[in-house]
Amino acid sequence: MYLFQKKINCTSFLIFSFFLGISLSCNKIIKDVEIIKPTPLVMSDDLFGTSPINVLGEQIERIAWCGVQYDQLTKKRFDDFKNCGLTINYNYYQNADQLEQVLNFSQEVGIKTIIHSSETDPNHPKLAQTILRFKNHPALLGYSIMDEPQRNKNNFTGTIDEAIAHGKAVRALDPNEDHILYITNNYIPLEDIQYLDAGINRKILSFDYYPTWPYSIAPGVYNSWFLATEIEANHAKKIGKKWWGFAVTAQHLKYPAATVANLRAQVFVNLAYGAQGIEYFTYSVPKGTDDYVNTPVNANGDTTLFYTQLRNINNEIKNLSFVFANANVEWTRHYNYQKDDPAVSVTTSSKEPVTLPSQIKKIQTSIPVLMALLSKNGDNYLVVVNRDFEKNADTFVEVDSNVKRILKTGATVNAEQHINIKPGDALIYTWKK
């Protein structure tokens, strides 16, 4: 994606302003907004494709599923991984010797790894030997326990009871609670999530939900996406834990190729609900599969245009981490939605009416958006997410003079009155308490 700026002479500008005023007066969606002086339209996309400049301090983690593959364990591949803006590597490796290579390269480039191999599987005779071998490695973040356990026996994965037993066995060998027990739950009933967390102490909750399939309800949105995310966020907050959420980055099954819009929407919706990490599925092509295409890294380990796209999204997350990392989510709400809105047709507390902070006098949007109010270290942040993958959200705002808008570089500017939020993108406003 590229942005082009055109120079407009004074005559053209006046004509443009005149027709803009007519267009706004005829708009049946945006009402009761007084535009004193029409201004050229500002687009929300202010960083994409550039290098990050505000990357110090607390960070939202960026986790890659199917990270560096076991037959591509070279410094070059780990440099590519780090340069993509990723912070945590996760993949299945064949044996403990490969795990040692992975951890050593991870330490060298400055990332962490969650280890997973046959020798860390439950009941493997070398489980204890493997844990004791690596538990003091500086690049170790934690241990993969199980992906998407279910309450009852099934043909897809193990049970929650089996995950709890495996986690307890690993924790007995490595009691360092900084090392996470990595268990990902999908959209299972809340009582099952509660049962899992009552049975084992997960430092990080990992929540798996992909909203980009099957393009039949709204532009790429499952109708339970927001409900499921809200349930996970509320559960994590209640038990005082951080949680990570997913974004689809690989075209597979019926999931389409990642676009800037659907990637941003997945990222910013998760962040608006309080996620402290974004998990990408996948970074490379999983071994033994033939239906994964358009991945950031191809089967040969080479970077693709989707790598560049992911790196640019990660640059945005890096720069905005000072807003989202360890922030308190006061509320997350849908705004300007209709009762029959398919994306929020299920009952959720985020459908409750929005009471704007007094510093935000008015917001009008042409399509429904997701809003979140965050607070942190004496600062307030209002996040407005265009959850749509296809349409711009034409937006008008009236704010106090001390309210600023945060660009994706981390810099602040005066809040524009008229701005277009690109598909999947977000606006962030800030003011002091």
A few lines on this structure:
With 433 residues, the protein is α/β, with parallel strands linked by helices. Helix content is 28%, strand content 22%.
Features:
433 residues; 18 strands; Immunoglobulin-like; globular; six-stranded antiparallel β-sheet; TIM Barrel; 2 domains; disordered N terminus; alpha/beta; eight-stranded parallel beta barrel
Count the helices. How many?
Answer: 9
- Report strand %: 15-25%
List low-confidence stretches: 1-40
The CATH homologous superfamily of the largest domain is termed: Glycosidases
Structural class call reads alpha/beta
Could you tell me the number of beta strands? 18
Q: What's the main sheet like?
A: 8 strands, parallel, barrel
What would your notes on this structure say?
This protein is of the alpha/beta class and 433 residues long. It folds into two domains: 29-49 and 328-432, Golgi alpha-mannosidase II (Immunoglobulin-like); 61-324, Glycosidases (TIM Barrel), CATH 3.20.20.80. It is 28% helix and 22% strand. The protein has helices at 10-26, 75-83, 96-109, 127-134, 160-173, 190-199, 225-239, 260-272, 305-324; strands at residues 42-43, 61-65, 88-90, 112-115, 140-147, 180-185, 204-207, 242-248, 277-281, 328-335, 360-365, 369-376, 379-385, 393-399, 404-406, 412-414, 418-421, 426-432. It has an eight-stranded parallel barrel, surrounded by four helices. The longest helix is centred in the last third of the chain and has 20 residues, at 305-324. It is globular, with a radius of gyration of 23 Å.
